[in-house]
Amino acid sequence: MTKVKQRRSGSSRATAGRRKGTKARSKTQSGKRKKRAAGKPKRPVVQETPRSVRVRMLDPQAKCGSGTSVERLFRVDEKMKGAVVTHLVFFDRHGLYCEHGRACPAVDDVRRAHRNLDWTR
Ligand SMILES: [Zn+2]
């Protein structure tokens, strides 16, 4: 007589041990971290200078008197960053110059706006 048969009940251990390690990884990292703002351009590519200039020709006689040597007179309204700067640009025997000096950018603005005129002295 042997009692070997009773040992069979131990086989159920195998299935119990399997449960370990099958823990589903609930910590799934959401891959939606990199959000791309599609259709929204960062910045306009063309960087226009925020400077608008309006050149107007004035009558030098009316402004400087009938005996003035000023041949041409221009008023330049320069708008930059919301601020408006007014230039008076003269053209006489000395050439073209702004009230702020010859290096003032308004001088070039007048020259550019009136390419057809002869600016040589
Ligand atoms: Zn000026």
Summarize the structure.
By secondary structure, the chain is an alpha+beta fold. It contains 3 helices and 4 strands; from the N terminus they run αβαβββα.
Keywords:
121 residues; alpha+beta; 17% helix; rod-shaped; binds zinc ion
3D structure, described in words:
This protein has 121 residues and is of the alpha+beta class. It has a domain at 51-113. The protein has helices spanning 13-18, 60-64, 105-113; strands spanning 51-58, 72-80, 83-92, 95-98. A 4-stranded antiparallel β-sheet has the order 1-2-3-4. The radius of gyration is 43 Å and the shape is rod-shaped. Residues 87, 98-100, 104, 106 line the site of zinc ion.
**Number of discrete helical segments:** 3
Low-confidence stretches: none
Q: What's the mean pLDDT score?
A: 81
Count every beta strand, where a strand is a DSSP E run of 2 or more residues.
4
Q: What compounds are bound to the protein?
A: zinc ion
Structural class: alpha+beta
- Sequence of secondary-structure elements: HEHEEEH
First CA to last CA: what distance? Answer: 135 Å
Largest sheet: 4 strands, antiparallel
Rg calc:
43 Å
Looking across the biggest beta sheet, what order are the strands in?
1-2-3-4
List the helices and strands and how they pair.
Blueprint: H1 13-18, E1 51-58, H2 60-64, E2 72-80, E3 83-92, E4 95-98, H3 105-113
Antiparallel strand pairs: 1-2, 2-3, 3-4
The site of zinc ion has 6 residues, from loops.
